[in-house]
Amino acid sequence: MTPGEDKHAIRLLRVGKQYDTTSGSVVALSPTDLAIAEGELVVLLGPSGCGKTTMLRLIAGLIAPTQGQVRVGGRDLWAGGRRDPAAVAELGVVFQDANLFPWYTIEQNIALALSMRGVSRSEQRLRARELATTVGIAGFERRWPRELSGGMRQRAAIARALSTDPQVLLMDEPFGALDAMTRDAMNLELQRIWRQTRCTIVLVTHSITEAVFLADRIVLLSPRPGRVDHIVEVDFPRPRGTAVQADPVFAAHCTDLRARLDAMG
Predict the structure, then answer these.
(1) pLDDT-derived band at 2, boundaries 50, 70, 90
(2) Helix/strand/coil for 264
(3) CA distance readout (Å), 231 to 40, 44, 222
């Protein structure tokens, strides 16, 4: 298959991951197949230790699979034990901790990847300000990370991940450390940013409500060794406001997912 022939944003083809520890081998992810279409917002959900973060890190190229193929934008992410730079360039990653450099301004943090690529300072500044507007922190570009709230720092982290125009945005519990009201606000913001950028998003969460609110599809993983146990299609129209949570179908999705998770023990 040649690059670009596969129209999926992401494909996992019998991808498995095994960790070798001092006490023996641990299978974190069983051989798994998964296809994610361009522009989809997919949520990975499952019990603690089921391999959600492992799967996300495999897609991000942060760790190599023990077996199988990870394809991004029709390209093999790994070839001959090395990551394909063209495939990696399609990816942006956001973690639970914003991980902003405290000695850089918000503008400098957003533009960090551009600086590393040798982009001119004027272009860095322009792009950082565009993205600050996109994520809702315009006017705070010259502030230091310590001067911003947790939610605003996470917006800056999202802007940084978007700075190189990735086709795929990977998010590992990005709002898990925020208070409930801020988290709800960030869910609305993420939906708006996604609709504006049209990138593909894969998000890991422990929150069933967050999963149902955000996702086009929810991929439920089994307990370790992780595998795809069930996929839920969520077809509420977009944009989704908080009122959708009062819909009986929304409650039914949440109840079904909770029952499936409870059954896993």
Answers:
(1) very low
(2) coil
(3) 14, 10, 11
